[in-house]
């Protein structure tokens, strides 16, 4: 792990199944930063059956996006109150729209902080179908597995806790098709936004998880961390 003095503020962007949730925990562990996954936060609300969770479930199952105000509020709360973010963060699933990116910029400006990098995991849509339909998750930790590509040691069982694995309700071909349209139309412009700011690096996400990780590490080393 890096020395705590070295900070990292980064964003992982990519379509559903690109590997954001696979790579982000490793970034969190190696760089001692917080991992803020807006999808996981929403699924937590759904599991707790809060009013926000009930509303979000309908939107998520339709492959659409929850409102910018709600999502920005969630990230703001984490940046202000989560002590694990002291050394920086990896954002996974946020920002997903231009207004979210703009609001993140103003939040960071107020905090006198700067982004180090924005890493886009690039992969063709057709490769994502098998990744998404074979995915298994451990709801409590957010750990993800794959029936063929990353099988758990015991079928349908989390390696670390022995608890059962489940399939996400939005991980079916119909919802995935809508999630991909949403990604290209709404999140595509976010990639250009960061490209113009000189923060963007693209990585081929069709390679094995360890090769993707090596390239993410290289991208971080190339972008000078700012404290
Ligand atoms: P979210 O949870 O963010 O879902 P997503 O963006 O669709 O991304 P995924 O979690 O599906 O994919 P991933 O890239 O993490 O893939 P993974 O690493 O697991 O969001 C869900 C919903 O919440 C959204 O649709 C939206 O409605 C709402 N939402 C969330 N944030 C929002 C926001 N900011 N604004 C508005 N709404 C928001 O990998 C997939 C599978 O492939 C796994 O099984 C894995 O084991 C396997 N795999 C990974 N890497 C590889 C590899 N290199 N080779 C082979 N297999 C691999």
UniProtKB/TrEMBL annotation:
AMP binds at residues 38, 43, 64-66, 93-96, 100, 168, 179. It catalyses: AMP + ATP = 2 ADP. Residues 135-170 form the Adenylate kinase active site lid domain. Signal peptide: none annotated. Residues 37-66 are annotated as: NMPbind. Pfam families: ADK, ADK_lid. Residues 144-163 are annotated as: Disordered. Residues 134-171 are annotated as: LID. InterPro entries: Adenyl_kin_sub, Adenylat/UMP-CMP_kin, Adenylat_kinase_CS, Adenylate_kinase_lid-dom, AK2, P-loop_NTPase. One of its GO terms (biological process) is ATP metabolic process. GO terms for molecular function: AMP kinase activity; ATP binding. Its EC number is 2.7.4.3. One of its GO terms (cellular component) is cytosol. It is an enzyme of class 2 (transferase). ATP binds at residues 17-22, 135, 144-145, 207. Belongs to the adenylate kinase family. AK2 subfamily. Monomer. This is Adenylate kinase. It comes from Paxillus rubicundulus Ve08.2h10.
